[in-house]
Amino acid sequence: MNHRIKEKDLRELFEFYGVVCKVLLAPNKAIAIVEFLNADFCKNAFEKLQYHKFKNNFLYLEYAPVGMMTEQQVEIKEHEIKEELENEE
C-alpha cells in the first residue's frame, strides 16, 4: 500500500460497506486488518473492493480466520507497535 495511507483512510473506505470495528495498519503500511461487525458487511466489502484501486495501489484482500485477534491480542500488539515507533525516534 501507499506509505501515506492512514488507518483513518482505510476505515473511511471500508465503512461504506458496513460497520467497521477495528482497523489495524502495520507500521510499514504493507498490510492491514479490517474487522467488521458481522460477516455480511465483510462479504460485501470483499466483493466490492477486491482489486480496487485505492491511493494509486490495488487492494489485495484475503479473509482472516474468525477470532484471529482477541481484544487482549489487539491491545498487546498496539503496545508493541507504539514501543517500536518510540524506539525508532
Provide key terms for this protein.
alpha+beta, Alpha-Beta Plaits, single chain, 3 helices, 89 residues, two-stranded antiparallel ribbon, 4 strands
Task: Please characterize this protein's 3D structure.
The chain is of the alpha+beta class. The chain has a domain at 7-64: RRM (RNA recognition motif) domain (Alpha-Beta Plaits, 2-Layer Sandwich), CATH 3.30.70.330. It has 3 helices and 4 strands. The chain has helices at 7-15, 39-49, 71-88; strands spanning 20-25, 32-36, 53-54, 57-58. Strands 1-2 form a two-stranded antiparallel ribbon. Strands 3-4 form a two-stranded antiparallel sheet. Strand 1 and strand 2 form a beta hairpin. The longest helix has 18 residues, at 71-88. The radius of gyration is 14 Å and the shape is globular. The mean pLDDT is 84.
User: What is the chain-wise order of helices and strands?
Assistant: HEEHEEH
* DSSP helix fraction: 40-55%
- Average residue-wise pLDDT: 84
Strand content: 15-25%
**Major β-sheet profile:** 2 strands, antiparallel
- Record the strand order, biggest sheet: 1-2
Overall geometric form: globular
Summarize the structure.
This protein is of the alpha+beta class. It is 43% helix and 17% strand.
